[in-house]
Amino acid sequence: MKKLFKCSICGYVSEGETAPIKCPKCGMPAEKFNELDSEAAGKIYRSNRTNDIHMEIITLAEKIVTLSEEGIEDNLDPKCLAAFTQAKNEAWVIKQRSKTEIAGHIALGKW
Ligand SMILES: [Zn+2]
């Protein structure tokens, strides 16, 4: 596990042997960074893949919304219209559920 340093000004987390010379996000100098302890760093590394999966699910759900809207617009017949409308609504739920998980992870330092 590599060392992680967190910017005390903006919260940006940097990976490396030392803190960055300046924060890539807010531009503050290295002195504003604090090294995360192993528990805090462990949460970030452990949650990395799960957060990526949630983001990919959100992207796919947005694609379902876009496709569903195209199908709704095309409006071939009432059953297709109903199926696309339902798919659009379900994709919204899938997207929001993953966003909720990510928001929870951020609140717990798991990001
Ligand atoms: Zn910063």
Detailed description of the structure:
With 111 residues, this protein is mainly α. The protein has two helices and three strands. The chain has a three-stranded antiparallel sheet, with no helix packed on it. A hairpin with a 5-residue loop joins strand 1 (4-7) and strand 2. The chain is elongated and about 65 Å long. The two termini are 15 Å apart. The model has no long low-confidence stretch (mean pLDDT 96). The site of zinc ion has 8 residues, from loops. Zinc ion is lined by residues 7, 9-10, 12, 23, 25-26, 28.
Structural shape: elongated
Low-confidence parts: none
- The multimeric state of the shown protein is single chain
Gap between N and C termini, in Å? Answer: 15 Å
How confident is the prediction overall: mean pLDDT? 96
Structural class: mainly alpha
> What integer value in Å does the Rg equal?
20 Å
Annotation field: number of helices: 2
Which strand order spans the largest sheet, edge to edge or round the barrel?
A: 2-1-3
Order of helices and strands: EEEHH
Measured as a percent range, the helix fraction is 55-70%
Counted beta strands: 3
* Main sheet record: 3 strands, antiparallel
Provide key terms for this protein.
single chain, about 110 residues, mainly alpha, 2 helices, binds zinc ion
Secondary-structure topology with pairs:
Elements: E1 4-7, E2 13-15, E3 33-35, H1 38-74, H2 78-107
Antiparallel strand pairs: 1-2, 1-3
The structure holds zinc ion.
Short synopsis of the structure:
The chain has 111 residues and is mostly helical. It has two helices and three strands; from the N terminus they run βββαα. α1 (38-74) packs antiparallel against α2 (78-107).
